[in-house]
Amino acid sequence: MRFDLHVHSNCSDGRDEVRTILRAAFRRGLGGLSITDHDTLQGSLKARKIIREEKLDLILIPGAEVTTSEGHLLCLGIEELPPRGKSPEETADMARGQGGIAIVPHPYHPFRHAIGRVPDCDAVEVYNSKHLFGIANARARREAKKRHLPMVAGSDSHFAATVGLGVTEIPASYAEEAVEAIRAGRTLVIGRRTPPRFFIGNTFQSIYLIVRNGGRKRQRKP
Predict the structure, then answer these.
(1) 156: burial class by Cβ within 10 Å (0-12, 13-18, 19+)?
(2) 10-residue block means of pLDDT along the chain (222 residues)?
């Protein structure tokens, strides 16, 4: 089954509403996804409700992209948000304590709040569709192979139009099974690069959010 494990909605710095994202994922033939908004589970909670109400044939893996002391970490399969500012290892342990997993996203991208290394984690995002030249992706893949860590892909989408550009095939029929399959390395990475026009759109979206919030990035509650 095809999953996009790294998607942002307007619950953090994405442009589109959760409902729009879910409908786009369904149209593109995804079997599941994770809404991984920054430091909030709000997008995941909304997605769970909409999937249930609209009876969408989609598996939701609840998650968030958590800000650690060194950079961002994806926490999937969680019901409670780990606090900001802990070390990557502490954050990963908090996710595991809930039966979830920690995935290091875009670990070597210089402009994306990358941790800059692969900490103790459950999987590495070796294909991020927003890497224009692919150098950071290649480095992430080499490190994952060297460390014998499971590999996943994600679109890192901030627009419904780019959902599904980074896909992980996972043999699973429900969320908990998908989390365990990732942990066990039963994954296949598939991806296409995000068109350049969306990089420009993402930049303007970030500027808009900062201006709207008086020069500060908005902090959202879980």
Answers:
(1) buried
(2) 98 96 97 98 98 97 98 98 98 98 95 92 95 87 98 96 96 98 97 64 48 52 44
